[in-house]
Specification:
single chain, 178 residues, alpha+beta, Alpha-Beta Plaits, SH3 type barrels, five-stranded antiparallel sheet, four-stranded antiparallel sheet, elongated
Amino acid sequence: MMNNPEWYVIQVVSGTEENVKSSLFQRRESFAMEDYLLDVFVPTHDVVSVRAGGAKVKKQKNLLPGYILVQMIVTNESWYIVRNTPNVTGFLGAGNIPVPVSGEELEKLKGKLEESANTYEANFEVGDTALITTGAFEWNEGIITEVNDKKGMVKVSINLLGRETPVELEFAGIKVSK
């Protein structure tokens, strides 16, 4: 087959990506394939969720559920070892011939990972009523007018001296009552 290491997309049972990664590294050592199975990459990014009470919880979220990338030199043996790893359902490609990921596609994926690094996940939306729990406007209530998932910020319109005033706050600085 080929002699240059390339990246290939492997289909796996969704939710088992990290287990398959570990299994591939173990199988690589067991079958002395270190020169053929070079790296395994699970595309994930950090997501910060804001829980009730304003607690921030950081967790990893898979960017491509059900897929991982393997850098390898394809031989009959290396293909067989990867293909027969538990929870691997196949290579992305045509039939039995794995198709490598182009350098351009790999760069696009890496860019998408950087772009979505540290995104925030909110359990509220525009129009919800929010109670401000920190800062100068603590205990004021208002309506959410804008949610910025990238920065983890929210704009709340509060009544200040008889006027609607927008206040920008972190997700953790509000409590939402739906």
